[in-house]
Structures are given as structure tokens and as C-alpha cells.
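WARN retry 2 of 3 for item q-0093 after timeout on previous attempt; input resubmitted unchanged.
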Amino acid sequence: MKTLPGNLYLIPTLLGDTPPVQVLPEYNLALLRRIDVYVAEELKTARRFLRKCGYSKNFDEETTFFILNEHTPADEIISFLEPAEQGMDIGLLSEAGCPAVADPGSGLVRIAHERGIRVIPLSGPSSIIMSLMASGLNGQHFTFHGYLPVKPNERSQKLKELERDSLRNHSTQIFIETPYRNRQMLEAILSSCSNGTTLCMAINISLPDEIIVTRTVREWRSARFEVPRQPAVFLISA
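OK item q-0093 returned
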């Protein structure tokens, strides 16, 4: 009798040091404690997250981890799904938030579809979606761009391009930055975008020190805002 394949569960992780019960459904927590095979970006982070969620099994003897990041050879990824083909469920974890969104896990998900393995996305925190929800900007038409160019001239040009696209399509443009460059990004937006363009900064989403502020560029220029070096999502709408 042929063994039915297991499922690939896409399991959101915490965005910071938040109690799991505050942002993850009980269904997720129960599932996390049951699964014995995980795909993650970084072993230490994955183990810490699982322990925080109540996973009590012996990592070295009872749990299998596959590491999937930008250094993982493409031809190695397919082997991560072998346990599912043998009937075992697999959990895909991100470093923070939802797996396969601005995350290397999307390649594994695509292969799972190709091989007939059921992909099941679970509810949980997403800084991109949560910032859009709280911004007051257009949630019907939006685009996520990931990281913008680092070089000042290229970044400024890209910001002006996003502003034009937002005005033309009545859409929200969403992007992120490395925390230590948050200040430079804010300065670039204020120097590149028009007075009437709206900017939302959403910082440390779902954490106790969460900050979500929406203002026009003109208002941002006159505000005294100390930009923290914390994970932030930037949203603009012209």
C-alpha cells in the first residue's frame, strides 16, 4: 500500500520577544509540538522559537532540521521534502514572521507543489500585512518591494519611481530597510518625495514598544522623530 505524503506547513514565527500565545493560534502551538521535521534559515533561532512554544522533544535525537538560506545549493533543496514523501509532516519556519514572504522558503514551497505535496499556510504575524492594516493607506492595491538600493542616488531615484507609481495607480508602496539604515531611509524619503505624499513608519510590529505613525512628508519634515534602530516597514502613498 502506497504511503500518503505528509504536508508542508508554513508556520509563522515571532517578530520579536513576544509571548507566543499573544500572536500565534493554539492550533499552531499544538502542531509545532507534534512535528519532528523542520526547515529553517538558522538552527539556533529555530530551536529557540520551538522551545518558547513548548516543544519538549530532544533536538539531537528526535528532531530533524534542514537549513535553507541564501547559501543553500538549489539542487539540495529538493531533498528536504523526502520526509514528506515518506509520510511525515514538515514545518517551514522563517527567521521572523511568515515563511516564503521576503524569505528563501518560497523555492521549497514551489517544489512541494510540483511534487504533489500539500502546502498548508497557517495564521500568524506578518509585519508587511500588519503595517498595511495599521497605516490607513490603500489596502486594496499595494506592492511590496523588499529592500531598496543602498547607494543614495539609486535609492532616491527608486523612491521617486515608487511615488510616481503610487500616484498613477492609486497604490501603496511598501518596503523595508536594515535597522541601522532606518534614519538614512527616512531622510532619503523626506528629501526625494513631495510634500503631499503620505509616509507610514511601522516599527517593532507586535512588540510592546511598537510604533506606527502616518504623516504627510511635510509633517514628517517638521516633526522631531528619533528613528530607532529596530525592524521597520515603510509605506508611501502619493
